[in-house]
Amino acid sequence: MDSGEWREFLEGLRTRWKSLWLDRIDDRVRAEGIANEDYDTLFIDQGTVIVATRDYKPPDFREILERHAEDKQPGKVVVSNPRVGGWGKFVRDVVGKQKRFTKRGRLVPSEPEKKKQQLKKGGRGWLHA
After folding, report:
1. How many whole angstroms separate alpha carbon 52 and alpha carbon 27?
2. Predicted model pTM
């Protein structure tokens, strides 16, 4: 596929992407946005939730574009999206949550011990002697 055909395909994909977001059905009860028709070029079916309030990853135009690029040019290597994960995410999720040991094998305290407050009457208590 030459650059002119790819540019035309990309413009068509952008117009479909814009129409997806403009023509969506907003469900105010569930606080969601739903696709109102099938978008085959965007890999989205009718009724798919495209916007939600919590813990939801909306469709990403860049990922869709990369999927099309893999189909059109199978030998080309595409750099992964940092949100999907890589070495940094592996270190944060796996290595960062492991227990830490010293050379002797004892656990290192994660938080320093809190300094205790001074005792009333020097530790003799409340009763007067």
Report:
1. 10
2. 0.54
